[in-house]
Amino acid sequence: AAAPIEIRSAFERAETIEIELPGNELAALNWEGLSPAGVIRRCPTRAAGWAGLQFPLRIAVMLTPGEEVEDIAKSLREELRSELRNGQLDIDLIHVANPDEITSALKSHHYDVVHMSAPTTVRGHRCSTRFGEVFVDTREVLDRTLAARPRMAFYHGLSSDISEVMSGLRVSSQAAANFGTGCIVYAAPPADPATRQFVVNTYRSAF
């Protein structure tokens, strides 16, 4: 009831609205699910604009150490094989052992999409990405990814604690320096049967 009347009216008409949130506990709330309206998170900084699409679209799939990550990457190539065959997509599988290697890989080529599936947890109220036995602040991972200014960044947090990790991912993605990249964060267990189709549907609807 404390919201401005134009915001309340937009919710009542189920229109899409954009919200700009700070990178704190407010960003952890599931604003997208709290209203029947479509909610889009907005970052204060935006890119001036993108050049027209050129095919094939280049996708970098970042692989942190771990068998479950390898399985997801292989299944992504299998599900998108028709798009790969007809020249719509080009997928590079890139092994990264630490955040520095993310930066190096994204400096060597420009990618339209950067995809990362990695074990993710919340440690001391902060979302952390696991590289082997080392945990790194997920915001740093997102900062390094978004600095390359891809069209879309997809971060898939591998975790069984979906609610807790999603809250952490919302904070991390809201706090990261974003210059206009469409950023999708998602949490699910590695063996979740719906995950593969969700990822594939996301790519097909985006491009």
Give your account of this protein's structure.
With 207 residues, this protein is of the alpha/beta class. Helix content is 37%, strand content 28%. The chain has helices at residues 5-12, 25-28, 67-79, 81-85, 99-108, 138-146, 162-175, 193-206, and strands spanning 17-20, 39-42, 57-63, 89-95, 113-123, 126-131, 134-137, 152-158, 182-188. Strands 3, 4, 5, 6, 7, 8 and 9 form a 7-stranded mixed sheet that branches. A hairpin with a 2-residue loop joins β5 and β6 (126-131). α3 crosses α8. The longest helix has 14 residues, at 162-175. The chain is globular.
What is the topology?
Layout: H1 5-12, E1 17-20, H2 25-28, E2 39-42, E3 57-63, H3 67-79, H4 81-85, E4 89-95, H5 99-108, E5 113-123, E6 126-131, E7 134-137, H6 138-146, E8 152-158, H7 162-175, E9 182-188, H8 193-206
Parallel strand pairs: 1-2, 3-4, 3-5, 5-8, 8-9
Antiparallel strand pairs: 5-6, 6-7
